[in-house]
Specification:
By secondary structure, the chain is an alpha/beta fold. Helices cover 38% and strands 24% of the residues. The protein is built from nine helices and eleven strands.
C-alpha cells in the first residue's frame, strides 16, 4: 500500500463554474501519488477549455470527451477503464476534497485492514458558502443498513481494486452511486467509516437530492430493477426506506459551529 497510485474519477457536464476548484482541491492533497481521469459528457459550455488548461500544467490530469451525452455512469465507466491505480476514488465536478483526504483514508485502510472506506463530509451552498452542516455516516455500516439508505457520500468513497477488481458502474442516470456501493458492500458485508470530515459537498438546486419526489421514484427503481424485487416487496422496502429517511438519517446530519 505504501505510496500506491490512486485513480480519481471525475465526470463532467457543463461544469465550467466548478471544475477548476474541484481539481485544485486534489492538487492540494498532502498525498501526491494520484492520477485524475476526467470524462466529459459532451459539455456545451467552456468545460473543455478549462480541462485543457489544467492538463497543460499538471500531467497527472487526463481528460477525454464522450461523443454524445450519456450520463455520469457511462462517463465514470469510461474513466474506470483508463484507471491505472490500485485505489479507485470519486469526486464530482462541483465538490471539493480537504487537503488531508487521501492520506487520512489510505492510512485508515492500512491500519484497519479494510478494502473499502468512506468518511463524513461537510456541506456548502451552490455559491460555495459553508453551511455548518456535517453528514456523519454510521461508523460501522452493514449491507442491510445501506440497503435501506445510502449513507456513503460518493465524494468520500475509496476502494482497493486489488481486492475487488475494477467495479463497473451501472449506466443508470440516477442513483448509480448507491447501486455501486451496494455492489461493493455485498462482497464484504460491512465497512468502516473514517470518523473525520474529509470532503465538502455542494448542494445545488437541480441536484436529485434537492427533489424528494424524484428521490423516492428513483429509489423505488433501485429496489424494483437493481434488486429484482416484486412490486409488493419493492413497496415494502420503500416504506422502510422512507421511515429511515424521516426518523433515522436525520440523526446523522450534525450542526457544527465551525467547519474545519
Amino acid at each position: 500500500m505504501e505510496n500506491a497510485l490512486v485513480s480519481i474519477l471525475i465526470p463532467t457536464y457543463n461544469s465550467a463554474l466548478f471544475i477548476k476548484d474541484a481539481v485544485q482541491s486534489i492538487r492540494e492533497q498532502t498525498y501526491t501519488n494520484w492520477e485524475i481521469i476526467i470524462v466529459d459528457d459532451a459539455s456545451t459550455d467552456q468545460t473543455l477549455d478549462i480541462l485543457k488548461s489544467i492538463a497543460a500544467i499538471d500531467t497527472r490530469v487526463q481528460w477525454t470527451q464522450l461523443a454524445q451525452n450519456s450520463g455520469t455512469g457511462v462517463a465514470r465507466n469510461t474513466a474506470l477503464k483508463q484507471a491505472k491505480g490500485r485505489y479507485i476514488a470519486f469526486l464530482d465536478a462541483d465538490d471539493l476534497w480537504k487537503p488531508e483526504k487521501l492520506q487520512t483514508q489510505l492510512d485508515f485502510m492500512k491500519s484497519h485492514a479494510v478494502p473499502f472506506t468512506f468518511s463524513s463530509y461537510d456541506c456548502m451552498n451552490e455559491k460555495g458558502k459553508l453551511l455548518n452542516v456535517r453528514v456523519v455516516p454510521p461508523q460501522n455500516l452493514s449491507y442491510r443498513q445501506l440497503f435501506f439508505c445510502n449513507y456513503v457520500g460518493n465524494l468520500t468513497g475509496i476502494y482497493d481494486s486489488h481486492f475487488f477488481g475494477k467495479v463497473s458502474i451501472l449506466p443508470n442516470r440516477k442513483r448509480q452511486d448507491w447501486m455501486h456501493w451496494l455492489t461493493i458492500l455485498k462482497k464484504i458485508k460491512s465497512a468502516k467509516a473514517v470518523p473525520e470530515s474529509l470532503a465538502i459537498y455542494r448542494i445545488r438546486q437541480n441536484s436529485i437530492s434537492a427533489s424528494k419526489l424524484d428521490l423516492v421514484k428513483h429509489n423505488f427503481g433501485v429496489y424494483k430493477q437493481f434488486h429484482g424485487l416484486s412490486w409488493i416487496s419493492a413497496l415494502a422496502c420503500m416504506s422502510v426506506f422512507l421511515c429511515t429517511q424521516l426518523f433515522i438519517k436525520p440523526f446523522y446530519i450534525k450542526k457544527v459551529a465551525k467547519v474545519n
